Amino acid sequence: MLKQSLKLKLSQKLSPQQIQLMKLIQLPVLDFEQKIKQEIEENPALEIVETTSSDDEFNKDENINIEEYINDDEIPDYKLRSFNSSEHKENTIPYASGISFNQLILNQLHTERLDDFEMSIAEFLVGCIDEGGYIRQSLEDVIDDIAFTQNIIVEYEKINSILKTIQNLDPAGIGARTLQECLSLQLRRKSDNVDTILALKIIDNSFDLFTKRHFEKLLVKYQISEKELKKAIKEVEKLNPKPGNSLSNNSTKLIEQVIPDFKIEILNDELLLSLNGRNKPIMNVSREYTEMLKGYSLEKNRKSQKDAVQFIKQKLDSAKWFIEAIEQREQTLMLTMKAIMTYQQEYFVSGDEKKIKPMILKNIADEINMDISTISRVANSKYVDTPYGTKLIKEFFSESMTNNDGKEVSTIEIKKILEKIIYDEDKRNPETDDSLVKLLYKEGYKIARRTISKYRKQLNIPVARLRKQL
């Protein structure tokens, strides 16, 4: 039996403009500048000016009424698209210019004596090398790829021989398939002194014992002294585990320049917050486009004129919205960062990281009456220049824990203490996670072993066995 009923439901949805604003808030300085450049290129009704003038006020305040020419029900196309673009593209940090490291390897390869068949195989292998300098595929898989994509059949012995030619190129270790092979290739290029020969034997024949730091077993297996083993390990430590980086650093590696979005200064014991001046260009709605719209109103009855008016209005509305969005972005960023600065005032005044208070997104969201997602967008991608260095804002957020005295402390403080304990430990007998639990308890913090393990991983500190040194 079919049944019909009416149901009333309230729901809250973000408008396209609000969604665009959230994306705009999330952008760091460099990406924000790219967004502005993109918007200006795509919207001729938008202009950047050096100074403000009375014309600016005219352009900002002028209301363009074209209701008599265009049906109000028609939704301007730009409102249905992301940032007035037909297809939203993620903003990325620009790449450095230069020759790719694959091309640098090919340049060396072309000096080798290879026939056309061998060269085509070699070039394919070079194309398989990643930025670290490794070929992650097995040669069997490469053979299948060559057959499928190039219609070339090659035997395993042949491709392995060509790979060895590539591995003789610079930098040493390039074209390796594993870390073990990479280190071995580099050691074979070094002079044949006693330490290098021993290091090569260990890497080639006892790599598992070496990586797991079973030093006692290595001493017994090779019948060597602790001093000899220590010298061999130092030879390995001089090697580059990612030889491709030595080339890509000067070619197509991403520019890792950090430009802070905010600056905090101390003046007469007072904290002063400012937004990076690059964040707020002076922008105007084009007077030319505004006048153009008025001109079209004289021939309002023609369909072609109506289409032109529709197009111009979309561009003008988009320009006005973008200017307003920049203002809203600035207000949101300043309001959020000021709340964070006030919440963590003791740290920003003293620079003592132990004074960073437990702070979660909800604390700031409640303080300034904003949504948690907005605070997250600001915190996750923005940097602040402080008297103690440039910091990622999200680093000031942490959960709280109660110490043995019943006082709430930040997990940041606990991590700092954990880091110091491990830094000061006896490297010949590193502290296990179980012993770290006991040591932190003596410091006044009762923490479970699994939490210690989690914090250690967050700090990129390996387990005790891998921290062991001779």
Layout of helices and strands:
Blueprint: H1 16-26, H2 29-42, E1 46-48, H3 54-61, H4 101-109, H5 116-127, H6 139-150, H7 156-167, H8 179-189, H9 194-205, H10 207-211, H11 215-222, H12 226-237, H13 245-248, E2 262-267, E3 270-275, E4 283-285, H14 287-296, H15 303-343, H16 345-350, H17 361-368, H18 372-381, E5 383-386, E6 389-392, E7 400-402, E8 408-410, H19 411-424, H20 433-442, H21 449-458, H22 464-467
Parallel strand pairs: 2-5
Antiparallel strand pairs: 1-4, 2-3, 5-6, 7-8
Descriptive account of the structure:
The protein has helices at 16-26, 29-42, 54-61, 101-109, 116-127, 139-150, 156-167, 179-189, 194-205, 207-211, 215-222, 226-237, 245-248, 287-296, 303-343, 345-350, 361-368, 372-381, 411-424, 433-442, 449-458, 464-467; strands at residues 46-48, 262-267, 270-275, 283-285, 383-386, 389-392, 400-402, 408-410. Helix content is 52%, strand content 7%. With 470 residues, the chain is α+β, with helices and mostly antiparallel strands. The chain has 22 helices and eight strands. The N and C termini lie far apart (81 Å). The strands form three sheets. It has a four-stranded mixed β-sheet. Helix 9 (194-205) packs across helix 12 (226-237) and helix 20 (433-442) packs across helix 21 (449-458).
